[in-house]
Amino acid sequence: MLRTRFTEEFGIEHPIVQGGMMWVGRAELVAAVANAGGLGFITALTQPTPDALREEIERTRQLTDKPFGVNVTILPSINPPPYAEYVQTIIESGVKIVETAGSNPEPFLPYYKEAGIKVLHKCTSVRHALKAQKIGVDGVSIDGFECAGHPGEDDIPGLILIPAAARVLDIPMIASGGIADARGLVAALALGADGVNMGTRFLCTAESAIDQKVKEQIVANSELDTQLIFRTLRNTARVADNAISRKVVEIEKAGGTFEDVRELVAGARGRRVFEEGDLDAGIWSAGLAQGLIHDIPTCAELIGRMVAEAEELISARLASILA
């Protein structure tokens, strides 16, 4: 058993988290992670309405009696979704863990706290992690530059970012970015983290509700098969290398603006990749961890394997160095 501050305070068995992923964080995957002893998050905005989120929470409860959470990512938008209604739905549904990301979660923290909900906030820098701690979150998930999605603009990899954050934080911290196996888990613990968050690795599991062709492409890809888009817009995102992401980078390098790539990066196109398996339909998030992924296990197989191998690494290989 790998017991950490994170497992103790968030009430889970293993220090392994499946964070929120747009179009991916659905009941089947979340429940499978929970049943395997990890912590899974439903992605609130994958559901088109707060009522649909309520139904997804209930579907998850039918599949597991273990703890799980809901991710609420707040991003700038011309037509923002009704965030307050989604938050109210989470509270009314009795969910006890929320993962927040994007904008500052402070406006909603009093409501979460009043409902006895623990809040895990995703950060990409030490300064943001310290701010999250100051406003009262219960834990932080810190993303190194290796991660899929938005790694921030500091370009600090986990080998530096994790211990830098661990040195100044008092609340539990989990590490994210480039982690896909027991070696990453043990390394994160050694660097001062209390657990790990994985996105790309959980994309590529049997219970992940994305098309099989996407999973097979992740297995085929290496750590070289990502693109960084929106660099010139100071809104960097790491996505899988495909015809669309290469085109976006090309347009940016030629001096293009967001308006020039808007149609290419539309969320509806990315959704088609996951649901239809058309790998060039749009952009889709994937991290450098692709280079460490060589199979498509069930969540139980993945988490069980990670924990067993981590225990072996700690008790045998690393312990032998002291002999």
From TrEMBL:
InterPro entries: Aldolase_TIM, NMO. GO terms for molecular function: oxidoreductase activity. Keywords: Flavoprotein, FMN, Oxidoreductase. CDD domains: NPD_like (cd04730). Gene3D superfamilies: Aldolase class I. Its EC number is 1.13.12.-. It is an enzyme of class 1 (oxidoreductase). It comes from the Bacteria. Pfam families: NMO. PANTHER family: 2-NITROPROPANE DIOXYGENASE, 2-NITROPROPANE DIOXYGENASE-LIKE PROTEIN. This is NAD(P)H-dependent flavin oxidoreductase. It comes from Nocardia xishanensis.
